[in-house]
Amino acid sequence: MKIGVIGYGNMGSMIVNNILKMNLLLADEELIVSNRNIDKIKHLIEEYPDGKVQITDNNTEVASKCEKIIISVTTPNFKELIEEILPFINEKTHIIYTCAGIDFSKIKPYFNGKLTLVIPTIASTVTSNNTIASIARRKGVTLIKHNEKVDLQDSLFIEDLFNEFSYVKTLKENSFYFEEGTEDLKSENPELEMSTILTSCGPAFIAIMIEKFAEMASNNANMTKEDAEDMIVKTVLGTAILKEDQNLSNWELIDKVATKGGITEEGVDLLDKRLNNLYKKLFESLLSKYEEYDN
Question: In 3D, which of 199, 215, 196, 193 has the Cα closest to residue 166?
Fold first, then answer.
């Protein structure tokens, strides 16, 4: 079976390289990668000369040869791409796409076949020098949602593939209703939007918190920002592993660190008071961005 990947941006390249680095292709499987700038993917042939991967700058070649096609392009380019490959796909084609802002209903007028929405995270990147690679084979959370055309065999194929390098969370299709007194279609299950914010957007939010934490520490002490960041990153990793290994709640973990009347307790009290309002504004802003996609 031939598996196609169209688009070699941040997510597309992460998926391709994870599959190849971890040798996830079976003996009868082959990967075809398409990107409009073929120079960007020529290194794949050099790094994996065993013939398990082919490259092209022709999206229709991928569409005509592959039964499963992973589309990882930007949301504005998705409609144009579907229209381009539509004459070259059939009822057996299974389209897997990574554009979080596009619901199945928006694709149905163009393609009424098997659709799976996959929201990966850059946190699942497999790298040889990752210090936690030996601790956990899977990293990050991949969100997956199938339409009603995807049967059990097809759904398990996709879920098992991403389960090799990430934790998979499968979401049900949203049900919708018209808001009373309006013509606005609302989702009864906003789980996908919120889960995407937590998992796919999450690494960026964590990174900016580390950035500001390290910056403020270096500005107030005789240390470089790089040294501060190194300490924070190792502390974040250690904290996550401790919480996971011992199944600690957040407050149980806090109690292990914060002594009564101490420095940690002072900081926790301040953050506890201030963060509620900050996160409220963050979610309001991000969810309103989803509404822009819907309109």
Answer: 199
For residue 243, what is the enclosing H or E element? helix 225-245
CA distances from 266 to 261, 263, 271 (A): 7, 5, 9
- Residue pair 102/74 in contact by the 8 Å Cβ criterion: no
Q: Which candidate, 72, 87, 198, 216, places its Cα nearest to that of 143?
A: 198
Q: pLDDT of 227-272, one tens digit each?
A: 999 999 999 999 999 999 999 999 999 999 999 999 999 999 999 9
22-35 residues labelled b (16+ CB within 10 A) or e (exposed): eebbeeeebbbbbb
Predicted confidence (pLDDT) per residue in 119-141, tens digit: 999 999 987 644 444 445 689 99
Tokens read off for 232 = 């924070």
Task: Report d(CA 258, CA 121) in Å as an integer.
Answer: 32
Q: Which of 244, 110, 271, 282 is nearest to 97 (CA)?
A: 110
CA–CA gap between residue 191 and residue 143 (Å, rounded): 10
Contact 25, 52 (CB under 8 A): yes
Residue located via tokens 């390290």: 214
